[in-house]
């Protein structure tokens, strides 16, 4: 069985968990705290970031994008019409563009601020990044998420899914990042109905159930986090 080193509040880990579930790849989840910089973990991924997958043969695949490429190569053909990285070159480029948009741009402008300020700073020692939340950073993230939500709405008003007519990696990376922001109650869903309906479709998929069932110690989810009819 494959192993996935992850953390519950890491959006890239959530992304790969959703993908593995969609592909029905049996996986043993191993929670990792990357800030501890365990020597054994750094041997697997010297960059010290999550997620890291070890397949059934022992092959180490570090990072969400390499894991996506590996999974497409290993399982894509067998998935047929359910393949999450499209066969068409144009659609593949668009899917990869949106993976980068959410993994890099959305993370830098929204996810990282909220996760750090609202969750991680509460549990880290003072000398390792723990402190009171930076309210200016939280305000910036809440402002930025509106722009990204409008962009999601713009895309899905013109397409069936984010990258085109079919479900792809792009939908799951976007939903993974939004899910942790939604957990914290900081997604203004009422501001874009198209984006809300798109997220509701994803949230209703069986692959989402484990995420919706999880809670973080000391940080309860928003009132509608697990509500499929939010």
TrEMBL record:
Gene Ontology molecular-function annotations: glutathione transferase activity
SUPFAM superfamilies, alphabetized: GST C-terminal domain-like, Thioredoxin-like
InterPro entries: Glutathione-S-Trfase_C-like (IPR010987), Glutathione-S-Trfase_C_sf (IPR036282), Glutathione_S-Trfase (IPR040079), Glutathione_S-Trfase_N (IPR004045), GST_C (IPR004046), Thioredoxin-like_sf (IPR036249)
PROSITE patterns, sorted: GST_CTER (PS50405), GST_NTER (PS50404)
GST C-terminal domain boundaries: 88-221
Subunit composition and interactions: Homodimer.
Protein name, entry field: Glutathione S-transferase family protein
Source species of the chain: Labrys okinawensis
